[in-house]
Every structure is written in structure tokens, then in C-alpha cells.
Queue: 3 jobs
Job 1
Amino acid sequence: MKVRSQRFETVIGAFMLFLVLVSIAFFLIRSRGIDKKYVTFYAEFDAVDGLRLGAPVKINGVTVGSVLKLSLDPENVSVKVKFNILKKIELPEDTSAFITGESLFGEKILKLDLGASEIKMRPEEIIYQTQAPLMIEDLLYKLLVPDEKKSKKEEKESKESEHKNSNQKENGNSIQKEEIESSN
């Protein structure tokens, strides 16, 4: 019975050692990126209002990656967005990035518009052709609060137009008076 017990313990010990070695190998392979499905890129924006970590990255409406990190670049006061996409997707060097909403009030996503360049970007490169999100609050503010410069310009143009119209009427009336006087 002792021999059987020792043999059982040896088999269990060997099995546990095997599991530990397989686990270590698995984590080493993953950490070195041997089986990596994704590559990392960056995009630089003036603002990233509403974009969150984990937000989807989409090309033509298809999710191809996610946002990994948002960081403020103190040198030029821009926001650097770190994101990953599927390794099999190659980005042309003239690719542009936009932050947009999936719906009017939906979460923000990072949308990539692939360019037409034959030259492809390498992983870790930065996309500089970007557009920050349009904020509904800003649009409503522009619609509801008149722009003083615009209002003054419109007011000036309106007065000039009225002045021209009144001059034309006066000129038209004087021409009519001249015609009436000459016919008499």
C-alpha cells in the first residue's frame, strides 16, 4: 500500500510540475508577442472629449481594435491616444483618425479612414491627420448665442443694403420727375 501511495504522489507531483511549466511557457510566449494578434499605433489630437479607455477602434464600421491609453503631451499640449488594431491590417501613411459618436448621444469611438498611399505605417508610429470630436454643447452654443462679429457684420451689410435700396428709389423717383417735367 505504501508503494501505491508513493506512486500516486509521484504521478500527481509530475502532473503539477507539467502544469506549472506549461503555464510559464504560455505566459512567456504571450509576453514576448509570439502569438500577438494586435499592433500598436498612436494618434495625436487637440482634444479627446468623451473618448474612454477601451473604446472601439473602427474602420468602415467594423471594430478592429481598442483604445489603450490617453495621455497629455506637455510639449505641445496635445493628447496622444495609444490604440491597437489587428496585426493583419496595414495602415497607409496618409490614414486619418477621427473621434466620433456611434449615435447622437452614444459613446465616442476612434474611427480610422484609410488613405490611398502605397507606403504603410510601421507599428508605434503616430497619425497626425486627426480631427477632434464635435461637441453637441459647442454646436448648440454657436446656434443659440449669436456671434458678435458675425452680428455686427450682418448688421452693417443690412444697413448698406437698405441705403442702396433707398438711393435707388430716390434715383428712380428723380428720373420719373425728370420724365414728367420734360413731357410737360
Job 2
Amino acid sequence: MPTVPKQSRRIEICGGIAAGKTSLARLLEASIADTDAIYE
């Protein structure tokens, strides 16, 4: 059974979190743009 180094797994997790944060930021920007369009 091969052992996976902890550091590489940590990098994968951090990459997943970073990807999640960027997609969340894009969703937030889109919703803010929508509300701006409504109030104009």
C-alpha cells in the first residue's frame, strides 16, 4: 500500500479551497452586478 505524502494532499486541498473561493467571488460579483442593474 503506497503512502501518499501529506504535503501533496495539503496542496490539493488548498487548491480546491482556492478554486472554491474564486468561484464564490465570481458569483458574488455577478449578484452585485445584477442588483446594480436593478437599481439603475
Job 3
Amino acid sequence: MGEILRWRLLLFQVSKDSVRDHEAFWDENEQVLTYEDTELRMDQIPTLLESEYRDCRRLLYEDLMFGTKDVSFMHAWALKDGANIDTVGWNFTQHRDNELLLRGTCKTLLAAIERSDQLCRLFLTDTRNPVNGYTWRENAVASYEATVQELLKRLCVLIHVSGGQPVRESEFLAMTWRNTQRRRSVTICHERVMIHVRYHKGQQQTGRYKENVRFLAHSVGELLLDYIVYVMPLRQILLRQQTPKALLSPFLWEKDGKVGIDGQLSRCLEDASIRARIPRLHGSSWRQITVATVKTKFASHIGVSEANVDDQDAEEIEEDIRIMTRQRNHKTQTVNRAYVDQTGASFGNVWDGLIRTALRASTLWQDFWGVETILKPKKRGHVEGKSRLTKRVAMGVYRLREPWLGDALLEAEARDAWTRSGLLDSNRDKIILYVRKRDEAKELADLLECGSYTARSGTTIEKGEEVAKWLALTDKPYLVATSAFAEGFDYPHVRLVINVNERESIVLFAQESGRAGKDHEKAYSLVLLHPLGSLWKMM
């Protein structure tokens, strides 16, 4: 035993001093990175992400959710989470503040099957038994579960690549979506989906874990939320068809209730590379590539202090913070735990400073690859095709067989100009249009094909549902309202308030305009006047 321990100590020392023979290196322009036999251009990672995101949306919304249109898609900024709740089986879907938004979502896909004769024939079979009636077809259930696994293969690549620098495969595959004896890995924090995993190095002597926190891009996080909210309940129903009283596994990347095996993430990354037609990546090569990318693309622009090896809580980065740290008489660990009372807070060793640092790091990583831009959900249907053709006509590369109307071209170009301006984040920002009369609200809402809020919009519950539906939509950010609109409404991301015709009271105007910019970011208030009558009739 003594000989084994001596060899162990020797290997520890050698591993710290040794340098690997294979090192990733850049070309002269720092646009192509080569590691062993893999030559990767920087523009190929966005191609990989876009390819996997497109497949994820198709598998989730068209196949697993049956193309259902009348659903409220999930957004992290609209949901609440209780980070300190450690009840076994708990996650954000059980938070009381989410009750209105999530009401009935657990049976949405089941109801879609019941409404569709085609889906009923596909999923159900008549047992010709007056007691049991219908039962699930085993082949349809197996096909549905196989589609789930295809989605998870692509979603894990999206999260692994776009969330930030890669975590270890074993910890990634052990990610949980609801509480077990330990708290879940998927949490909503800072209006983003946060992933928190821990790993324990085999060489470590202290028994302390390394905390890894990543924040997902909005589009990727919304895919994960929709999967948990809509698909998981149907999977639970199908599972109990085979095993009564069974529960879905709490692990996100499970198959048949078992956690993914070593090498699974690497295989998913290789398959994704083949689909995207880029050089084949696997777990170890991607780790080397990310290290080289951070050293070259970030290290020269971001000042990073030398961390104190003996103090795991050393997180000071900026010079001002370092100066204030020297002035105090206690360690960072004491501040994070004793003074801020973080010992019993969420995730044990994960304090607010680490979470905010991780948010900053994930944001930098996603900005570098342009994740939020390339993964922005595309509008579906005729409008999307019309807009795309408009751009091609404007560029002189396509000509329609039918006469093209100038006003349609102008409309599409105006829409593109608004998108390019960057004034509105379609994932969260909203617009309120105030009018004076109820009939005007209805007329304008019909014209814009959006919701409206007046004193006659229904009961308090119906009004609340209308507002929740508006907040959940990303393709139509506007709501037409009168002065009756939600006096206690405090959604922070109202970016623009438009008053159609002037207000009779400056106080009412101030109250309505004050609904914009509560998130302390730049917001706008606009008054539209026309001396000849109804403004939108003149447009």
C-alpha cells in the first residue's frame, strides 16, 4: 500500500509539470484552429449550432408537440423559481407564481391527441372491452420515445457547446431537471435558464466539489423549458401505460430510466458535426479547442487576477474589487458565508458572486459565437416566405411570377429595418398601444391581429389570462389597451409605450408612459397625432 501511495504522489507531481505533445495552434490570421488532425474554422461552430437548433425545433414542435399552435411557449423571464426549495420531486413548474401561466399545460398534448382523429388512430387502439375502452399502441409509444431521444441528442450538443466552456462529461450527463436528494441542476435565475453541476476530481483530498454554473442562451433555454413543461407530462402518462405508478427519471439525459454512459456526449458531438458538415469534433478535441479559443480571443481583452489556490472563494476580478478586498480584515469565504448568510442559501457553495460571474462568462461566450443572433426563432408560415422573397427581389436575385406590389415590398423592408435597429429584443420586450375608446381598441387590435385590454375584456381571471398570453408571445410584442389596463401591472421589460391621440390628463399620460423601462434600460414613449381623425385609418 505504501508503494502505491508513493507512486500516486509522483503521478500527481508529474501531471502538474508535464505538457502534452499535442497542442492546438492557430493560423496566421487566427481564424483557423488546428488540433491533431482537426482543422476548424471559427465560422463552423455557428454552423453547427444553427444545424442542431433547427433540428431541435423540428423534433420538438412539429413531432413531439404535434405542431400544436394554441400553446403558450415558455420564456425564462416569465417564470419564477424557488432556488432554495429542496423538496424531492420539486421544480419550477410547481411554483405558485407560475400557476396561471402553466395551468393545464400538463394535459396540453393529451388534449391535442384527443382532438385529432389522425392522432387518435395513431396512438390509440380499441380494446373492445367496455371497462378499459382504449389503450395506447405500443409501437406508437416506442416511436414517440425514440423521437424524444433524437431530440435529447441534439439538445445536449446545443447546451454543451453554447452554454460556455465545456464541463466534464460525467457531470453533464448527471444533470437533473427536478429535485432528488440533491437540488436540481436546471434552475431559472436572472431571467435565464441556469445549469448548475458539480464535479469531484479523483485526485482531490479535501472532499470539496468544484461548482460549475452555466447560463443558456434564451433560444436554447426556451427549448428546454418547453420540453419540460409540455413533453415530460405526456412521457409520464405513456410510461405508466407500461409500468403503473412509475415516475420519470429525474436525470435529463436518460434513456429507459438510466443515466447516459461515458462517451455518449462525445458520440452526440461527432454525429452533430457530420450533420452540419464540419470537421468531426469529439469531447476531448472540443475541450482543447475551447481552451485555445479563450486564451487567444479573451485573455488579451479581459483582466483576470491570479486566484489564491488556498481560497476556493477567490473571485475578485476588477482592480477596484481587489483594492476593497485588501482593506477588509477577513477572507472572501467569510464574507460569502458568514456576513451574507449564504451557508443555507441555494446550492450550498454557490454564492451570488459566483452566479453573476458565471452569467458574465456565459454571455461573453455566446456573444463571441453570435449565439443569440443565429438561434433567433424564425417566423413560420406565409409571412416568413413572403419576407424572404422580398429580400431576394430587393437584391435582384429573384423575380416573382405574379406582379409584385410596391407596398408589400415597402412593408417588408420597414419590418427588416425595425429588426436591424436592435431597439426591441423579441424574446422579452413588449409594446403597449394606448387608445381612448373601447371600440378604437377593438378596431386597432383587429388590424394588428393582436390582443386588447379594456374594461369589458372579461372577468379578472380572463384579463389575467390575456396578459399572460401576450407576455408569452414573441412574434407579436404589442397589446392595445385603454386606461383600464392593469393598474398593478409591473412587467419590467416594456420597451415602448405609444399613445394614439393625446391624453386629456398629464397625470394619466405619465402613468401610462411610466410602464416602460422599469428594468432600468432605455425605453421610449411616443404620442401619435393626426388632425383628420383616426390615425390608423389614415396610414
